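ping. complex inputs:
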Amino acid sequence: MNTRSMKGWLYLIPAIAFLGVFVVYPLFDVIVYSFEEGYNSASQTFFGTGIYNYQYVLRDPYFIQALKNTFILVIVTVPLSTLLALLISVGLSSISKLQELYQTIFFLPYVTNTLAVGLVFMILFQKTPYTDGFVNQIIHFFGGSTVDFIDGPYWAKMTVMCIYTIWVVLPFKILILTSALASVNPDYYKAAKVDGTSSWRIFYRITLPMISPMIFYLVITGFIGAFKAYGDVVAIFGTNLNAAGMNTIVGYVYDMLYGNGGGYPSYASAAALVLFAIVLTITCINLLIQRRSVQTS
Amino acid sequence: MSDMNNNQQEQQSFARAQKIRKGVTYALLTIWALIVLFPFYWMVLTSVKSYSSYNAEYVPQLYTTSPTLENYTEAFTAVPLARYFMNTVIFTGITTALMLVVIVLAAFAFSRLDFAGRDLLFTAFLSLMMIPNELVIITNFVTITNLGLRNTFTGLILPSVTSVFYIYLLKENFDQIPDDLYKAAKVDGCSDFKYLTNVMIPICRPTIVTVVLLKVIECWNSYVWPRLITDNQLYFLVSNGIQEIRENGFGRENVPAMMAAVVVISIPLIILFLIFRRKIMEGVSRGGTKG
Amino acid sequence: MKIVLEHISKRYPNRDKKVGGVFTAVDDFDLTIPDGKLIGLLGPSGCGKSTTLNMICGLEAPTEGKIWFGDTDVTNLTPELRGVGMVFQSYALYPHMTVRQNIMFPLENLKGPDKLSKDEMLRRVEEAARLVQIDELLDRKPNEMSGGQQQRVAIARALVKTPKVLLLDEPLSNLDARLRLTTREEIRRIQRETGITTIFVTHDQEEAMSICDEIVVMERGIIRQVGKPQYVYDEPDNLFVSKFLGTPPINVFEGRIERESLFIGTQEVLDVPGALDGPVSVGVRPEGFVPEPDGPLVCKLIAVERMGRDTSVVASHDAHDGVQMRAIVSSDARIDTKSDTVRFRIRPEKTRIFDAETGERIHFFGETMEEPAEVMAREARANAKPVAPQTGADA
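pong. complex structure:
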C-alpha cells in the first residue's frame, strides 16, 4: 500500500473503529445472542443453541401485550398524524402574514425534551384525589364523565399515548410537508387557475401528486418511528410499563435487558430481532405499494 | 346592465368566500398553535404556583395571582437538578466535540483523499444507516458493562461519537468545494491537514454548525442509553433525572417543583432553537428524524 | 529560470472501464523554455495542455521523462519546493478569507529558514497588491469583487512568494471580452516588469498570439509546432496548426499537384516548382484571395460583406472542405455583386500545401520563408518534425 492510500485509511481509523465496535460487531453479536439458550449474564455461560428464546418471547404475555400496544399506536398515529400534518401544512402555506411565527411555534415540540413535556401531559390528563386534572375539567364542562387517563381504563391510557405521540411527531411532518409544498412550481397553479380549475381540484389533482413522494417518505419513517415508540410512553406512564400494561416492543427489549425484570440479553435480542423483522416487512410492503401507485399514476 | 350587476355580485361573493376561507385557515392554525403552546404555558404556570395553592385548586386555575419562585429553589435543593444539568452539559459538549473530530476526518478522507477501496468503504458506511439502534444497543450494553464503564462519562459517550449520516452530509458539502482550490493550496505549499483546517472547515462552517446543533439537540434529549448505562444519580442526565424526580423526587407529589425542574431543563434547547431557528429547521428537513 | 521538459509523458488508466487500457494525455513532450520568456501553450480542449501545466507545477507526476528548472531536477519535487506560482481558470480564491489573507496564505506556509516575520509578510502582500493595482481592495472578500479584480488577486497570490516560474491556466476565459483585452496587456506588463519565466495555457489562439514570445501548439498530447506566433501563423508545419491559428480560419481545398502545377478542382491556380505529383490539401488564408476578372479560381458568390476597412467575400467552391469559404479583400476591390460567380487569383505567400493524407507541410521552390524561430524544440517528435524542402532534383 502506498503512502497516499495509508493516509486515507489513517483519517478513517476513528470512524471505522467506533462503527466497528458499536455497530458492526453488535449487529452479528445480537443474532448470536438470540440463539444462545439459557444465557447467564453473570457467569457468561449458556447451555445450548436453538430457537427457544424466540419461542419464549412469542409466548410471553408481556410481549403479546407490548405487540398489541405497539400495533394500535402505529395504526392510529401514523395515518392521523400524516393527515393532520398535511392539513396544517396546506393551511400554513396558504397564508403569508404570521407564517414564520406559526412555523416556529409548530416546530417547538421537536426541540423539547420528550421526557420533560411528557410529564406535563401526564399532569394535564391525570386524575388524582386532589384534582380531576385540566383535561377532565374540559370533558366535564362539555357534560362528559371524567376518567383517569393515566391509571384508568386501557382505552383511556391508549388515547393519551396516541395524543402525545402525535403531538411529538407532528413538527417533523409539518416541516417536511411545508417545504415540499413550497417547492411546487407556482406556474402549475397559475396554469390551473387560467383553466378555471376549482381549488379543491387543484389540490387533489396537482398539489397532492406533486408532494406524494414526500408523503410516502413520511409514512415510511412514521411507521418505523412508531414501531420504536418508547421514550414518549415512559414519559407518561413511568418506567414500569409492564405494570401499567402500556409496554411497547422496544420497552420490552429494554426491560429484558435491564431494570426490574432484566438480565436476559438473549430474550432481549430475540425480541429486538422480531421487531426488526416486523419493521422490515412493513417497510417493504410500503415500498411495494409506493412503486405500484407510482407506476399506475 | 344586469350582466354587469351579476358580475359584480359574483365578484363580491367570491371575495367573501376568500375571506371566509382565510378566516377559517387562521382559526385552525391558531387552535393548533394553542395546543402546541399550552403544555409549555402550563408547565411555566404550575412552576410559579406555590405548593399549597396548587394542591388547593381542585379545579386548576389558568392563571395565578401570586407567582412564586420557591419551586425553583426547591428543584435545585431537594433533588440534584444542578448535577443532572451539569452532567448533560458535559456529556453533550464532549460527545459533540469528539463526534466532530471523527466525522470531519472521515468526510475529508472520503471527499478529498484517493485511496484503494474508498468507494466500496463509503457504500459500506452508508448501508450502516439502515441498522436500527435498538438492535445494536443490547451488545453495546454488554460491552460497556464488561469494560466496567457503567456509571462513567466514557461509557455514556463512546457509542454515540460516530454518525454515518453526518459523515455523509459533510462529505457531500466537502465535495462541492472546487478542485482548483485544493490545487492552489498545494501550489502554495499547504499540507492536506492544513487544507482541511484552514480552507475546507471554514468554507463548510454552515453545515458544521447545523450538524453541531442537531447533535446537541440529540444529546440533550437522549434517554434510553443513559438509562441503561447509569444507575448512579451522580451520572444521570436530565432525561433520567426528570424520570427519577417523577418517581422518587421531592418525597411527595410536589407537582409545582417538578414543573420547575421541567422548565429548567427545557429552557436551554428552546433558547438554542430561537437563536438558530432557520439553521435547525433547515438541517432537520435535510434528513433529521425524531429519535 | 530556464525550464527543460525532457520527453515527458502522462498516461492514465482509461476512464471508460469497458474500453480499458491507458489513455495518453501527454505524449513525449520535449521542450526547452529560455529564462524570462512568456510562452503560450495552445490547443483545443483536451489536448493535454493543462496536464502539461500540472506536471510543470508538480500537481501531477509525469509517467515518463524529467523536468528541470535550471540545473535542478524537479521531477519528484512537490509544488511548494519548486517555487512556482499558479493562477487558475476559476481563480481558486479562498471565499472565506479577505484579499489580504488570500495573498498572504502562501507566505504563511513557508517553513524553516524561509519563514517570514509578520511585518515582512504584510510588506510583501502590499507590494504584490501594488504590482497588480489592487492595494485599495485588500480588506474585501472575493465575492465582493468583480471578475477582473479577482483575477488580479489570483495573480498577486501567485507572485507574492516571488516564484521562479509563473503558470497561468486559462486565466482570461472567465472574463468578458473588454476585460480580456486589458487583462492580457496587464499580464504582459507584469511579466515584463518581473521577468519571471511564464507559461500561459489557453485555447484561444488570438490571446496566445497577442502576448506570447513563443507559442507551443498541441494536439492530442503531442506538440505540433513551436515558434514565434507570427512565424507559426505564416509557416505552419501541418494542416492542424494552419487550421487552428487565425480568424477567420484558413480555407482548405482538396487539390492535386500535376507537373509542378497546383490544381483546385479542374482549375490550375498556382505554379509549385519542385513539388511532387499527387493529391494535396490546399490552405489559403482569407487574405490570400485577390479578386480578378480572369483569376483562375472560380467560386460561387454568396454574399459580400463590407466592413469599412476590409471587405469580406463569402463564397463556395466544390473542392472546399466546408460549406462556405471566406475571403478578406481590400475595400477598393471591385466585385460584381450581381454576378453568380467571383474569380480569384491566390497569393502564393498566403497559400500552404499539405499532404492529403498525413496533413504534413509540402514545401516547394519560390515560397517565401521567414527566418526560423530562435527556439527551442530541441528535437521535436518524428511526426511533428518539419519536412525538409524537397528539391527539384528529387522529382
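Chain A touches chain B through 89 residues (CB under 8 Å).
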